[in-house]
Amino acid sequence: MKNPLGSIMQQAQKMQEDFKRAQAEIEATEVVGQSGGGLVTILMTGKREARKVTIDPSLIGDDKDMLEDLVAGAINDAVNKVAKMKKEKMAEITAGLPLPPGFQMPF
């Protein structure tokens, strides 16, 4: 007879390795958040670190409030893209597992 506990432990170990690999892939990935139809862009890593901010020269002028809003919008767009990427990557790994609704992984 096979050892069911040993099998479960092997599956758990494989899943842990898959999670670590996915986390490393996510952290190395870069996304671009945009606002104002691309007039402001933010390059962000999967670790949610902003790498580069690009502002179209036409926005630099007297309307400081609008520029601030566009930068905030681009940041939010990038953060949302990172979150979506993480969710999709984790869904690939946990496919078929009976996890409770709303269960959040540790990263």
TrEMBL record:
Its main location: cytoplasm. It comes from Methylomicrobium album BG8. Keywords: Coiled coil, Cytoplasm, DNA-binding. The keyword Coiled coil applies. One of its GO terms (molecular function) is DNA binding. Residues 5-32 form a coiled coil. The keyword Zinc-finger does not apply. This is Nucleoid-associated protein Metal_0910. It comes from the Bacteria. Belongs to the YbaB/EbfC family. Binds to DNA and alters its conformation. May be involved in regulation of gene expression, nucleoid organization and DNA protection. GO terms for cellular component: bacterial nucleoid; cytosol. It holds the Pfam family YbaB_DNA_bd. It is found in: Cytoplasm, Nucleoid. Homodimer. SUPFAM superfamilies: YbaB-like (SSF82607). The lineage of its organism: Bacteria, Pseudomonadati, Pseudomonadota, Gammaproteobacteria, Methylococcales.
